User: Fold Arginine--tRNA ligase from Silvanigrella paludirubra.
Amino acid sequence: MTTAHDPFKKEISDLIQNELLRMSKELNLDFSLKAIDIYNMLTVPPDFSFGQAALPCFPFAKNFKQAPNKIAQELSEKINQKNKKFILKIDCINAYLNFHCNFKNLAQDLDKDISSREYFSRKLLDSYEIDKIVVEYSQSNTHKAMHVGHLRCLVLGDAVSNLLDYVGNKVVRATYPGDVGTHVAKIIWYLTHPTEKELPTKDKTRWLGQMYAEADDAFKATKGTEQEAEVKNHISEILKQLNNSSGKYYELWKETREWSLEELRNVYKWLNSYFDVWYFESECEASSKAIVKKKYEEGFFVKDNGAIGLDLSQWKLGFAMLLKSDGNGLYLTKDIDLIMRKFSDPEVTKSIYIVDSRQKLHFQQLFKIAELMGYPQASKSVHLSYETVNTEEGKPFSSRQLNGLQLLDLKNKMEEKVTKDYLERYRGQWSDQDIEVTARNITIGALKYGMLRVDNNTQINFSLEEWLRLDGETGPYLQYVHARCSSILEKIGAPSHPFTFEISDKNEQELVFLISRFNDFALQAANQNRPSLIANYLYDLAKSFNRFYENCPIKSAEGNIKNTRLSLVKITKTMIFEGLKLLGIPSPLKM
Assistant:
């Protein structure tokens, strides 16, 4: 359950609850409704002039056996007579109550709470609702090239983790690299057949990405030829050595695997990502088979045509195969082992798997099997799926086809463009380090916001030019607005306290209202695992600030500083900074 935290909406919900209780006593009715339930019923009117919050009274009609418009009329008359801090007035329009905000008091309250940081430490969840959640994401495969498409899972996972943590959950960030399997065996085969290829001394992951693409083509070329059986035998021997952790193929795997992991660590460092725990597919290989065999001997799993698994037909999930007839496991086999590891911590209440949408059935089967094995946490677990990242032409990026820049090459290309287009003019005024850090932060802002501005069930077309623009719905635009706020405060200084807040201009009012809604959006985004809600909120806030700045001068004609407006600049800067932080986007050092 949420805790009311917006002072305007909290005052509304408290007053409405008190009046409804009074009415129920007068009518001798057994009626109770929590203030937080009323808080969550509040909506935003379609036009700002209609008010800043609206409450439909239809839900109360059945309990009170009265017409909803009559209930609305009585509530408005009673509450309008009371002393209120954040409610200026109430309009009764048919069965709706429209609440107009006292922006002066709200702005003053926000200024105090945001400046003291109390706003951001406010508990958004009741204590009994707090979960310890394992968020698993960035399951990158080793031995292949990382391209921009792989970023979506990482960026989404970081933002979801940030949001869950912000609202009060305990979050364990986990990654699960795919470091074994047929795709790895193929490249080890290609590097050693027909003769061993010379390993590079530099640009190792770039070379490995090229070898991955060549290996896939070479393997496909053997299909239907005399070589096919021989190649399959080689692949089988490679997999055997990897399973036994011995042999020349295993040694080559260890060396090339470390190249990939080193690149992963560099990517995570660049993007300010981190993980509390690293699971590896190779760690689950042997143990997962042992688990399945043991559960089969206990009678939990069954055999079907030589394969071991579980019939989930009664849940319309088909037969879940865990060991093939040749004794080899599948992805589901290793995921059973992995979910048991996660839930070995009794405090963990669920796991969120951020994996592309093609794995829907896989996770439905996984959660049901784990639940039947005695892990109730599985029933609360979530497969948070996402769609592909495509080229500007709408073609999915592919490591096999090498149709996209490798990720670190893309990083360098974008940072060079940012420096050339936006920062070169400051050469001589800024240090080289300031230019380098700012280019890095703008690049990260472009990539992460581009990935997060739409819901995860929507395909994305990546456009380097569009995502780096300083106008429009981009990360650099938000960073620019933050930099503009910083520049104003550097030139004019902080507002002089104490002062009397004056909020009269509509642009001021809209800005205050949007600022006040930050925690509402953060909580909604966390509850729904939708960082796009915060991304869109920040874009609206940035646009509102620009309208405010263009229409509400910070200084009067006589040169006097208007402290209210300067304070709005200060708290807007803070809100954009905190919102970007939830998305994993740094503010630019300069701009």
The mean pLDDT is 94. Residues 7-101 form a domain with the Gyrase A; domain 2 fold (CATH 3.30.1360.70). DSSP finds 23 helices and 13 strands in the chain.
